[in-house]
Design goal:
- The protein has 13 helices and twelve strands.
- By secondary structure, the protein is an alpha/beta fold.
- It has a domain of 243 residues: NAD(P)-binding Rossmann-like Domain (Rossmann fold), CATH 3.40.50.720.
Protein backbone atom coordinates (compact mmCIF):
# COMPACT_ATOMS: atom_id res chain seq x y z
CA UNK A 1 0.00 0.00 0.00
CA UNK A 2 1.11 3.58 -0.68
CA UNK A 3 -0.03 6.91 0.73
CA UNK A 4 -0.46 9.72 -1.81
CA UNK A 5 -0.85 13.30 -0.59
CA UNK A 6 -2.41 16.00 -2.76
CA UNK A 7 -4.22 13.16 -4.52
CA UNK A 8 -7.21 15.21 -5.72
CA UNK A 9 -5.10 17.84 -7.47
CA UNK A 10 -4.07 17.87 -11.10
CA UNK A 11 -0.94 15.71 -11.02
CA UNK A 12 -1.86 13.74 -7.90
CA UNK A 13 -5.20 12.57 -9.30
CA UNK A 14 -3.61 11.53 -12.59
CA UNK A 15 -1.00 9.59 -10.63
CA UNK A 16 -3.58 7.73 -8.52
CA UNK A 17 -5.74 6.91 -11.54
CA UNK A 18 -2.74 5.66 -13.53
CA UNK A 19 -1.36 3.72 -10.56
CA UNK A 20 -4.58 1.76 -10.07
CA UNK A 21 -4.96 1.25 -13.82
CA UNK A 22 -1.65 -0.62 -13.78
CA UNK A 23 -1.48 -2.15 -10.31
CA UNK A 24 -3.70 -3.69 -7.66
CA UNK A 25 -1.57 -2.21 -4.88
CA UNK A 26 -3.98 -0.12 -2.77
CA UNK A 27 -3.73 3.65 -2.40
CA UNK A 28 -4.63 5.84 0.55
CA UNK A 29 -5.42 9.32 -0.79
CA UNK A 30 -5.01 12.40 1.40
CA UNK A 31 -6.13 15.80 0.14
CA UNK A 32 -7.31 18.98 1.84
CA UNK A 33 -9.62 19.82 -1.09
CA UNK A 34 -8.57 23.44 -1.40
CA UNK A 35 -9.71 25.30 -4.53
CA UNK A 36 -7.63 23.19 -6.95
CA UNK A 37 -8.24 19.87 -5.22
CA UNK A 38 -11.32 18.31 -6.73
CA UNK A 39 -12.86 15.12 -5.34
CA UNK A 40 -14.53 14.61 -8.72
CA UNK A 41 -11.10 13.99 -10.26
CA UNK A 42 -11.15 10.60 -8.52
CA UNK A 43 -14.83 9.82 -9.15
CA UNK A 44 -13.95 6.84 -11.34
CA UNK A 45 -12.54 5.14 -8.24
CA UNK A 46 -15.72 5.44 -6.15
CA UNK A 47 -16.54 1.98 -4.86
CA UNK A 48 -13.08 0.63 -5.72
CA UNK A 49 -11.82 -1.30 -2.68
CA UNK A 50 -8.23 -0.53 -3.65
CA UNK A 51 -8.73 3.19 -3.04
CA UNK A 52 -9.45 5.02 0.22
CA UNK A 53 -9.91 8.79 0.19
CA UNK A 54 -9.25 10.87 3.31
CA UNK A 55 -10.09 14.57 3.49
CA UNK A 56 -7.28 16.18 5.46
CA UNK A 57 -4.19 18.38 5.61
CA UNK A 58 -0.57 17.22 5.46
CA UNK A 59 -0.01 19.75 8.27
CA UNK A 60 -2.34 17.78 10.57
CA UNK A 61 0.30 15.74 12.35
CA UNK A 62 -2.20 13.72 14.37
CA UNK A 63 -4.16 12.67 11.28
CA UNK A 64 -1.06 11.78 9.27
CA UNK A 65 0.41 9.77 12.15
CA UNK A 66 -2.86 7.87 12.55
CA UNK A 67 -3.00 7.06 8.82
CA UNK A 68 0.59 5.83 8.84
CA UNK A 69 0.01 3.67 11.91
CA UNK A 70 -3.27 2.18 10.66
CA UNK A 71 -2.27 1.48 7.04
CA UNK A 72 1.53 1.08 7.29
CA UNK A 73 2.20 2.18 3.69
CA UNK A 74 5.49 1.14 2.10
CA UNK A 75 5.84 4.59 0.54
CA UNK A 76 4.55 8.15 0.78
CA UNK A 77 4.32 10.15 -2.46
CA UNK A 78 3.96 13.85 -1.68
CA UNK A 79 2.17 15.95 -4.32
CA UNK A 80 0.51 18.27 -1.79
CA UNK A 81 1.41 21.89 -2.59
CA UNK A 82 0.12 25.30 -3.48
CA UNK A 83 1.47 25.65 -6.99
CA UNK A 84 0.34 28.76 -8.88
CA UNK A 85 2.90 31.56 -9.23
CA UNK A 86 0.32 34.32 -9.71
CA UNK A 87 -1.58 33.27 -6.60
CA UNK A 88 1.68 33.24 -4.65
CA UNK A 89 2.30 36.86 -5.70
CA UNK A 90 -1.14 37.97 -4.52
CA UNK A 91 -1.14 35.85 -1.35
CA UNK A 92 2.17 34.21 -0.39
CA UNK A 93 1.22 33.07 3.13
CA UNK A 94 -0.78 30.03 1.97
CA UNK A 95 2.32 28.88 0.10
CA UNK A 96 4.51 29.21 3.18
CA UNK A 97 2.03 27.28 5.31
CA UNK A 98 1.40 24.40 2.90
CA UNK A 99 4.70 24.05 1.07
CA UNK A 100 7.07 24.68 3.96
CA UNK A 101 5.25 24.13 7.27
CA UNK A 102 3.07 21.38 5.82
CA UNK A 103 6.05 19.54 4.34
CA UNK A 104 7.92 19.85 7.65
CA UNK A 105 5.02 18.35 9.62
CA UNK A 106 4.59 15.58 7.08
CA UNK A 107 8.30 14.77 7.28
CA UNK A 108 8.15 14.65 11.07
CA UNK A 109 5.22 12.23 11.02
CA UNK A 110 6.89 10.06 8.40
CA UNK A 111 10.20 10.07 10.28
CA UNK A 112 8.50 8.88 13.47
CA UNK A 113 6.68 6.15 11.55
CA UNK A 114 9.84 5.03 9.74
CA UNK A 115 11.80 4.89 13.00
CA UNK A 116 9.24 2.43 14.31
CA UNK A 117 9.65 0.04 11.39
CA UNK A 118 12.00 -2.93 11.42
CA UNK A 119 13.68 -5.28 8.97
CA UNK A 120 12.62 -5.19 5.33
CA UNK A 121 9.73 -2.83 6.09
CA UNK A 122 12.21 -0.19 7.20
CA UNK A 123 14.76 -0.90 4.48
CA UNK A 124 12.18 -0.77 1.68
CA UNK A 125 10.28 2.34 2.82
CA UNK A 126 10.46 5.46 0.62
CA UNK A 127 9.35 9.11 0.86
CA UNK A 128 9.07 10.63 -2.64
CA UNK A 129 8.77 14.40 -2.79
CA UNK A 130 7.43 15.94 -6.01
CA UNK A 131 8.87 19.37 -6.81
CA UNK A 132 9.37 21.77 -9.71
CA UNK A 133 12.03 23.11 -12.07
CA UNK A 134 11.12 26.63 -10.90
CA UNK A 135 13.37 26.21 -7.86
CA UNK A 136 16.35 26.61 -10.22
CA UNK A 137 15.36 30.12 -11.29
CA UNK A 138 15.51 31.49 -14.83
CA UNK A 139 17.78 30.73 -17.79
CA UNK A 140 19.04 32.93 -20.59
CA UNK A 141 18.10 31.78 -24.07
CA UNK A 142 21.47 30.15 -24.81
CA UNK A 143 22.23 28.69 -21.35
CA UNK A 144 22.35 24.92 -20.82
CA UNK A 145 19.22 23.30 -19.36
CA UNK A 146 18.83 22.68 -15.63
CA UNK A 147 20.58 19.62 -14.27
CA UNK A 148 20.11 18.19 -10.80
CA UNK A 149 23.21 20.05 -9.56
CA UNK A 150 22.11 23.48 -10.78
CA UNK A 151 22.15 26.13 -8.04
CA UNK A 152 18.76 26.99 -6.52
CA UNK A 153 17.70 30.54 -7.42
CA UNK A 154 13.91 30.76 -6.88
CA UNK A 155 12.31 34.01 -8.05
CA UNK A 156 8.71 33.86 -6.81
CA UNK A 157 7.11 33.15 -3.42
CA UNK A 158 5.87 29.86 -4.91
CA UNK A 159 9.26 28.66 -6.13
CA UNK A 160 10.95 29.87 -2.93
CA UNK A 161 8.50 27.84 -0.84
CA UNK A 162 9.11 24.75 -2.98
CA UNK A 163 12.87 25.28 -2.73
CA UNK A 164 12.55 25.38 1.04
CA UNK A 165 10.58 22.13 1.03
CA UNK A 166 13.23 20.48 -1.17
CA UNK A 167 15.92 21.54 1.29
CA UNK A 168 13.93 20.09 4.20
CA UNK A 169 13.56 16.76 2.40
CA UNK A 170 17.30 16.69 1.69
CA UNK A 171 18.09 17.56 5.32
CA UNK A 172 15.89 14.77 6.68
CA UNK A 173 17.84 12.30 4.58
CA UNK A 174 21.28 13.55 5.54
CA UNK A 175 20.46 14.20 9.22
CA UNK A 176 18.09 11.36 10.07
CA UNK A 177 18.71 8.85 7.30
CA UNK A 178 15.12 9.04 6.04
CA UNK A 179 15.04 7.26 2.65
CA UNK A 180 13.86 10.10 0.42
CA UNK A 181 13.63 10.73 -3.31
CA UNK A 182 13.01 14.12 -4.94
CA UNK A 183 11.76 14.83 -8.45
CA UNK A 184 11.84 18.24 -10.13
CA UNK A 185 9.51 18.42 -13.12
CA UNK A 186 8.91 20.89 -15.92
CA UNK A 187 5.50 22.40 -16.82
CA UNK A 188 2.82 19.71 -16.81
CA UNK A 189 -0.29 19.70 -18.96
CA UNK A 190 -3.12 17.25 -19.56
CA UNK A 191 -6.46 16.07 -18.09
CA UNK A 192 -7.82 17.65 -14.88
CA UNK A 193 -5.53 20.70 -15.14
CA UNK A 194 -7.16 23.54 -13.21
CA UNK A 195 -8.07 26.35 -15.64
CA UNK A 196 -5.96 29.05 -14.04
CA UNK A 197 -2.87 27.65 -15.80
CA UNK A 198 -1.91 28.59 -19.36
CA UNK A 199 -3.12 25.70 -21.51
CA UNK A 200 -6.50 25.00 -19.87
CA UNK A 201 -7.16 28.74 -19.51
CA UNK A 202 -6.65 29.22 -23.23
CA UNK A 203 -8.97 26.32 -24.07
CA UNK A 204 -11.71 27.44 -21.68
CA UNK A 205 -11.54 31.11 -22.67
CA UNK A 206 -11.46 30.34 -26.37
CA UNK A 207 -14.61 28.21 -26.15
CA UNK A 208 -16.33 30.92 -24.08
CA UNK A 209 -15.49 33.57 -26.71
CA UNK A 210 -13.28 35.42 -24.23
CA UNK A 211 -9.88 37.00 -24.75
CA UNK A 212 -6.80 34.80 -24.57
CA UNK A 213 -4.46 36.78 -22.24
CA UNK A 214 -0.77 36.36 -23.04
CA UNK A 215 1.74 37.87 -20.62
CA UNK A 216 4.21 40.41 -22.03
CA UNK A 217 5.53 39.44 -25.47
CA UNK A 218 4.63 35.78 -25.00
CA UNK A 219 8.22 34.68 -25.56
CA UNK A 220 8.72 33.11 -22.13
CA UNK A 221 10.05 29.60 -22.80
CA UNK A 222 9.04 26.49 -20.89
CA UNK A 223 9.65 22.77 -21.23
CA UNK A 224 6.29 20.96 -21.47
CA UNK A 225 5.64 17.52 -19.95
CA UNK A 226 2.44 15.53 -20.53
CA UNK A 227 1.10 14.66 -17.09
CA UNK A 228 0.82 10.93 -17.71
CA UNK A 229 4.48 10.86 -18.73
CA UNK A 230 5.25 12.58 -15.44
CA UNK A 231 3.28 9.89 -13.60
CA UNK A 232 5.20 7.10 -15.32
CA UNK A 233 8.48 8.78 -14.37
CA UNK A 234 7.46 9.00 -10.72
CA UNK A 235 6.53 5.34 -10.70
CA UNK A 236 9.96 4.54 -12.12
CA UNK A 237 11.78 6.69 -9.57
CA UNK A 238 9.78 5.14 -6.73
CA UNK A 239 10.69 1.66 -7.94
CA UNK A 240 14.35 2.07 -8.79
CA UNK A 241 15.62 5.51 -7.73
CA UNK A 242 18.59 5.76 -5.40
CA UNK A 243 17.67 7.16 -1.98
CA UNK A 244 18.81 10.70 -1.35
CA UNK A 245 18.94 11.42 -5.09
CA UNK A 246 17.20 14.09 -7.16
CA UNK A 247 15.79 13.31 -10.61
CA UNK A 248 14.77 15.97 -13.12
CA UNK A 249 11.72 15.01 -15.18
CA UNK A 250 11.13 16.84 -18.47
CA UNK A 251 9.39 16.43 -21.78
CA UNK A 252 12.22 17.60 -24.08
CA UNK A 253 9.73 20.15 -25.44
CA UNK A 254 10.98 23.74 -25.08
CA UNK A 255 8.48 26.20 -26.55
CA UNK A 256 7.57 29.87 -26.03
CA UNK A 257 4.17 30.56 -24.51
CA UNK A 258 2.83 32.30 -27.60
CA UNK A 259 3.50 29.18 -29.69
CA UNK A 260 1.61 27.10 -27.13
CA UNK A 261 -1.37 29.44 -27.40
CA UNK A 262 -1.28 29.40 -31.20
CA UNK A 263 -1.12 25.59 -31.20
CA UNK A 264 -4.18 25.40 -28.96
CA UNK A 265 -6.01 27.82 -31.26
CA UNK A 266 -5.13 25.75 -34.31
CA UNK A 267 -6.39 22.54 -32.70
CA UNK A 268 -9.63 24.21 -31.67
CA UNK A 269 -10.08 25.53 -35.22
CA UNK A 270 -9.92 21.90 -36.33
CA UNK A 271 -11.85 20.18 -33.54
CA UNK A 272 -14.41 22.83 -32.48
CA UNK A 273 -14.59 25.63 -35.11
CA UNK A 274 -16.10 28.96 -34.09
CA UNK A 275 -19.67 29.54 -35.23
CA UNK A 276 -18.52 32.50 -37.32
CA UNK A 277 -15.70 30.39 -38.85
CA UNK A 278 -13.07 32.93 -37.74
CA UNK A 279 -9.80 31.61 -36.27
CA UNK A 280 -9.43 31.48 -32.48
CA UNK A 281 -6.09 33.25 -32.83
CA UNK A 282 -8.08 36.50 -33.21
CA UNK A 283 -8.94 36.26 -29.48
CA UNK A 284 -5.29 36.58 -28.38
CA UNK A 285 -4.67 39.70 -26.28
CA UNK A 286 -1.27 40.74 -24.94
CA UNK A 287 -1.43 41.91 -21.31
CA UNK A 288 0.99 43.33 -18.75
CA UNK A 289 3.60 40.79 -17.72
CA UNK A 290 3.71 38.98 -14.38
CA UNK A 291 5.95 40.46 -11.68
CA UNK A 292 9.36 38.79 -11.72
CA UNK A 293 8.37 36.54 -14.62
CA UNK A 294 11.11 33.98 -15.29
CA UNK A 295 12.14 34.10 -18.93
CA UNK A 296 13.07 30.48 -19.56
CA UNK A 297 12.99 27.09 -17.88
CA UNK A 298 14.58 24.04 -19.47
CA UNK A 299 15.04 20.58 -17.99
CA UNK A 300 17.92 18.26 -18.76
CA UNK A 301 16.32 14.86 -18.11
CA UNK A 302 19.42 12.85 -19.05
CA UNK A 303 19.99 11.46 -15.55
CA UNK A 304 16.65 9.69 -15.24
CA UNK A 305 17.10 8.23 -18.72
CA UNK A 306 20.68 7.16 -18.05
CA UNK A 307 20.10 5.65 -14.61
CA UNK A 308 16.48 4.47 -14.77
CA UNK A 309 15.78 4.09 -18.49
CA UNK A 310 12.87 6.56 -18.57
CA UNK A 311 11.90 8.85 -21.44
CA UNK A 312 8.55 10.54 -22.14
CA UNK A 313 6.22 8.61 -24.44
CA UNK A 314 4.39 11.68 -25.78
CA UNK A 315 5.65 14.40 -28.07
CA UNK A 316 4.14 17.82 -27.55
CA UNK A 317 2.09 17.34 -30.72
CA UNK A 318 0.49 14.13 -29.46
CA UNK A 319 0.10 15.30 -25.86
CA UNK A 320 -1.50 18.65 -26.65
CA UNK A 321 -4.01 17.03 -29.03
CA UNK A 322 -5.03 14.56 -26.31
CA UNK A 323 -5.34 17.47 -23.86
CA UNK A 324 -7.56 19.63 -26.07
CA UNK A 325 -9.75 16.63 -26.87
CA UNK A 326 -10.11 15.84 -23.16
CA UNK A 327 -11.36 19.36 -22.40
CA UNK A 328 -13.81 19.22 -25.29
CA UNK A 329 -15.15 15.92 -23.98
CA UNK A 330 -15.32 17.02 -20.31
CA UNK A 331 -17.00 20.42 -20.39
CA UNK A 332 -19.14 19.46 -17.37
CA UNK A 333 -15.96 19.08 -15.29
CA UNK A 334 -14.76 22.49 -16.45
CA UNK A 335 -18.08 24.09 -15.58
CA UNK A 336 -18.01 22.56 -12.10
CA UNK A 337 -14.53 23.83 -11.20
CA UNK A 338 -15.26 27.35 -12.45
CA UNK A 339 -16.87 28.42 -9.20
CA UNK A 340 -17.56 31.95 -8.03
CA UNK A 341 -14.21 31.93 -6.21
CA UNK A 342 -12.44 31.00 -9.45
CA UNK A 343 -14.17 33.80 -11.35
CA UNK A 344 -13.19 36.25 -8.61
CA UNK A 345 -9.58 35.10 -8.93
CA UNK A 346 -9.51 35.56 -12.70
CA UNK A 347 -10.91 39.07 -12.28
CA UNK A 348 -8.29 39.88 -9.63
CA UNK A 349 -5.38 38.59 -11.70
CA UNK A 350 -6.28 39.87 -15.16
CA UNK A 351 -8.48 42.95 -14.78
CA UNK A 352 -5.55 45.34 -14.25
CA UNK A 353 -3.32 43.86 -16.98
CA UNK A 354 -5.00 45.22 -20.11
Amino acid sequence: MILVTGSAGFIGSNFVLDWLAQSDEPVISLDNLTYAGNRANLANLDGDARHTFVHGDIGDSVLVAELLQRHTPRAVVNFAAESHVDRSIHGPEDFIQTNIVGTFRLLEAVRAHWNGLTGDDKADFRFLHVSTDEVYGSLAKDEPAFTETHRYEPNSPYSASKAASDHLVRAYHHTYGLPVLTTNCSNNYGPFHFPEKLIPLMIVNALADKSLPVYGDGMQIRDWLYVKDHCSAIRRVLKAGRTGEVYNIGGWNEMPNIEIVKTVCSLLDELRPRADSKPYIEQITYVADRLGHDRRYAIDASKIERELGWRPAETFATGIRKTVQWYLENEAWVSTVQSGAYRDWVETNYSQRA
